[in-house]
Design goal:
This protein is α/β, with parallel strands linked by helices and about 425 residues long. The protein has helices at about 15-25, 30-40, 50-55, 60-75, 95-105, 120-130, 135-145, 165-175, 180-185, 250-265, 285-295, 305-315, 335-345, 355-375, 395-400; strands at about 185-205, 220-235, 240-245, 270-275, 320-325. It has 4 domains: about 15-80; about 95-145; about 165-205 and about 220-375, Ribonuclease H-like superfamily/Ribonuclease H (Nucleotidyltransferase, domain 5, 2-Layer Sandwich), CATH 3.30.420; about 390-420, no CATH class. Mean pLDDT is about 85; it is low at about 385-428.
């Protein structure tokens, strides 16, 4: 019996573009992405068969035929899942709304003694409110799962109440965006910060490296050898860093770091420093140093208050201009990005027998970083106003609108569509 010829699919330019966008988007469900790939392959000029498409995409020829016919009959809406048959809902919509309303409120607002929702607590609250036994634990779980509501989980966030947050953030982000152009013009943008109170820890037993089938193992107990402070200045245009390692983080230490960093930096016509609001960053000693660098009059009597000192350091007429991040806005400082790299690559798994060994190895790591790994960071936040009274969102919509601090995280697990292995019959 001859094999029937699969129906041909002809796509317009707009339809092909839409299907390609659906197939490539990270947020597309894998089932829908597979169906889009099937239609695109079926519309290829060589007209592959259902069996060939199934081998390429890792599905059966029956699946390919189903979605080819659905697309020919209904178009793109035919690729969506149809309504499922089965037992109708036994819980009415008002009850479902009440379940969602209870789970969306804090337990204390519902006159509960706990501070964290559990399914049992939600059930008890609803039974008291509805005066019925017609709702179960599993039913509540399904209702919450349908709307992606997880009241048992929580996350921390910190809202900035600085009235000038948007203006300060915009200025700093503009510096980051133009850092390369400024560098070519003889203007350097720098980010300074401290990594304070880093404990020098030595594991009581040697670390056992990873082996085939076994992870790296580290001793849980450790010996303390004091603490060290790393003061860092990051050049935004190049990613190069200048550092100072010490035991304290006083204003004197910060001024000493500025001295050393300035000696290592290339000679520029202007320096823009991005710093947080730590009091050592706008101390009287820092003002004295900036006045010496910029050759401007220095009057301690006019710089007794912090507001006056910050205004003096932020004067755009100076050669060295300080830009302070808004309150609770230290994430605007790119030096925090380098500290993340430092923690992951050096500090997290380190074992240091002494403070001297820690300083020696840290110096070596920082020199190697400047020589091999230093590069400008990709900054995605544009300085547009953030959504108030909500956490700093990472959704794709807010990313496109320029309101997200960082790029959204990629999916932890992604299904890859590989062609199936050829079938091999084993000898009996």
């Amino acid at each position: 019996m001859p094999t029937p010829i699969a129906p041909r699919i002809i796509l317009s330019h707009n339809a092909r573009t839409d299907l390609q966008a659906v197939a490539r988007a990270h947020s597309t469900p894998q089932s829908l992405a597979l169906r889009a790939h099937i239609v695109l392959r079926a519309a290829a000029p060589e007209r592959p068969t259902n069996l060939q498409i199934g081998h390429e995409l890792g599905c059966s020829n029956l699946t390919v035929g189903t979605w080819r016919r659905r697309y020919l009959a209904l178009g793109f809406p035919g690729l969506q899942d149809a309504m499922r048959s089965g037992r109708p809902r036994t819980i009415a919509s008002p009850t479902r709304v009440q379940v969602i309303s209870v789970a969306s409120a804090l337990p204390q607002d519902q006159d509960r003694t706990v501070t964290r929702w559990t399914l049992d607590e939600i059930v008890a609250t609803l039974l008291d409110a509805l005066h019925t036994d017609a709702i179960s634990r599993s039913s509540i779980w399904r209702i919450l799962h349908d709307v992606d509501l997880k009241p048992h989980k929580s996350a921390y966030w910190l809202n900035s109440h600085d009235e000038d947050f948007d203006a300060k953030a915009h200025i700093i982000c503009q510096l980051y965006a133009k850092a390369l152009a400024y560098y070519a013009q003889g203007r350097l943008v720098l980010c300074g910060d401290e990594k304070t109170g880093r404990q020098v820890l030595e594991r009581k037993a040697p670390t056992k490296p990873a082996q085939p089938g076994r992870r790296e193992r580290r001793e849980h107990e450790y010996i303390r050898h004091g603490t060290r402070v790393l003061i860092n200045s990051l050049a935004v245009a190049t990613g190069q860093i200048a550092w100072t390692i010490g035991c304290t983080r006083t204003a004197t230490d910060f001024v000493a770091h500025l001295h050393q960093a300035y000696q290592r930096l290339p000679r520029m016509t202007r320096y823009d420093w991005v710093l947080d609001n730590l009091n050592t960053h706008w101390s009287l000693d820092v003002c004295r140093l900036v006045a010496q660098w910029c050759k401007v009059p220095f009057d301690p009597d006019k710089l007794k208050k912090g507001v006056q000192r910050r205004a003096f350091l932020s004067d755009p007429r100076h050669r060295h201009v300080f830009h302070f991040t808004p309150k609770h806005g230290s994430w605007l400082n790119q030096a925090e990005l380098f500290f993340g790299v430092l923690h992951r690559r050096f500090l997290a798994r380190g074992s240091f027998p002494s403070a001297k060994d820690f300083e020696r190895r840290l110096e070596r790591f920082l020199k190697d970083y400047n020589a091999r790994h230093a590069h400008p960071y990709r900054w995605t936040y544009t300085g547009e106003p953030l959504v108030r009274a909500t956490p700093f969102s990472r959704t794709r919509r807010q990313q496109r609108q320029g309101r997200a601090c960082f790029s959204p995280r990629p999916k932890r697990y992604e299904r890859l569509l590989y062609a199936p292995r050829p079938y091999q019959r084993h000898a009996a």
